[in-house]
Amino acid sequence: MIKILLEKELRDIVSSTKFAITFGAAAILVILSFYVGIRNYEESTREFEAARAVNASNVASLTDWRQVQHKVFRKPQPLQVLVSGVTNDIGRTTEVRPHGELTLINSRYNVDPLFAVFRFLDLNFVVIIVFSLFAILFGYDAINGEKESGTLKLILSNSVSRADVVLSKLLGSFLALVVPLLVPILIGCLMLIGFGVPMSGTDWVQLALVIGGGLLCFGVFLMLSIMISASVTRSSASFLFSLVIWIFSVLIIPKGAVLVAAQAVDVPSLDGVEAQKRKFTLGQFDQRFQKMGEFLRADITRDETWSQRFVAFQDSLNKAYEKEREEYYRKLNEDWRNKKDHQEQWAFALSRLSPTAVFQIAAMNLANTDVSLKHRYLEDLNRYQDEYAEFLRKKTGSSGGMQIVMRFSGQQGAQEEERKSLNPTELPEFAERGRTLGETISASFADLGLLALLNILFFVGAFVRFLRFDVR
Amino acid sequence: MKQQPIIEAEGLTKVYEDGHCALDHVSFGVQPGEVFCLLGGNGAGKTTTINIFLGFLPQTEGTAKIHGVDMHADPLEAKKHVAYLSDVVMLYPNFTARQNLDFFARLGGKRNLTKEQYYSVLRQVGLQEMAFEQKLKGFSKGMRQKVGLAIAIIKEAPAIILDEPTSGLDPKAANEFQSMILHLRSQGRAILMSTHDIFRAKEVADTVGIMNDGKMLTIKSRKELEHEDLEKLYLNYIHGKVAA
Question: How far is A180 from chain B (nearest CA, A)?
Fold first, then answer.
């Protein structure tokens, strides 16, 4: 019996004008999101390669490693095509110095502010806005709509159990809508291959999980709206309820969670933290000049080893101040980061009341474009900074930092050194460590599990509500 | 000698949670080849009776049997023997008349019917040939009612329950519908029909049960009604001029 009902459900949905229009719109948006993402990725990759080439050329034009202003560029990742997350908000360029705090500049939104206003069309957006609406449009009258048209009584006047009817309704609606949605997604995947986006095996697994998460999110809204349809007599009322829940889920809860978290956990502003750092650095700067003056006044013998003594003095001074400053910055940053983490935990916990926010968090974790991307990237940069400082030490004999370079005429080898151009390939290669597949999956596991749980919960809710539904 | 009724109500009572008594010990039986009309105004208890017979509503007391099977005790078995047609027959607007018929026929246990068999039933109810493969979204109420009747016929159930089937139909369509009911009666089906249309009841019914406030005030056979004005009788019962 369930087969007959399931067939009817599939045919009824797929043959409707509502399906043709909404599926057409969803399909176009899915394909468009892949296309826009691929074009963005291509453009970002071009910019990345060009910036690296300019950096290499700048290095090659110099003759002294101490003059190098070494820049590192964040490499575009293929999955950012579909779930941009925070990737466009954080800087893509960093000037790496052997010491000191590293900052990310030139974010995509900073360079193209228009996109900051309207944001990019990505799969994340399509799932959150379009798929969820799509689900509501088909679920809101699934039960009470049949009651209004008299078909529910006609079905139940036959030897059919209510369990069969509601199971076929829930499964049929899900299958009738999900299978067609997989078609444009599949086309999008083929586009990734066709346009030569370098997707690794891990990327494909992560993408499959993002798509799975999107379908779970879709399922939550479908089951929820069917449950509402089985709880409310009139379809116009269930549409209103479903729409209100959608508005809360998509617009109000995520934004409200951030506002509530901001009120609940006080985090000092970044400007305030920066001002504290500047004040500390300026204090060190004055002290340093005083000590250098003292050295110059005390060590007045300008013999052959004076230059080396001066460099050694500066090195030890730099090391001491650098250590002190790094310790101070680290403490400030750690304090700020702890408070910020606490605030974010609050915001994320509250936002998880919304299924779309749960999906968004899961998808960003799967695409590695979540809010910790900047933190992870800076950790990689800090590791690289040590590597770079060591490289400079080997090349120049100095640990870098603020130095006064003094040369005396007639010094051996000075002219010879000026003539030699630097070889940029000698620079240590920066590589993002990123997360392993296991780490990525475990970061999103709880949210995917929550979406699955919500599906089950609303499925059971719809089932139970229908068993008690007044068909009269 | 009277046969065993196909549709049988015995002491059927329905009291809602708020204490409202919608049905008060209603008893009647519908024999094969008999059209039994439940006549009454709004709130008389006609639809409540039908809802209990279709298993949509549990009764508080009494029994409702279809073909000897208690609807409350074994609804899935009882429903095998009954076909139903309501006043709201929207059906599936994106399906054609034949597709609608096919779905409900298979639901009613009629599998593997040929297209010609479906067409034959649609012809039987008087639907135009060109409408067989047309989607229902463009159908008039009369046309949809014909498809609904075809659904009831194709199940070949011994009992047919019709809830205000001629409500909203134009006189021509109502007349055609009446002919179909009489045809089904001639096939030996037991037909229970609720209506507030006295004229239609008199035309089609073998037995009329007049209901008011959940009570079955009287049951009159066609023979008994031959010499009575049904309208006057109905109004007298409703206004309490005749003791129930």
Answer: 18
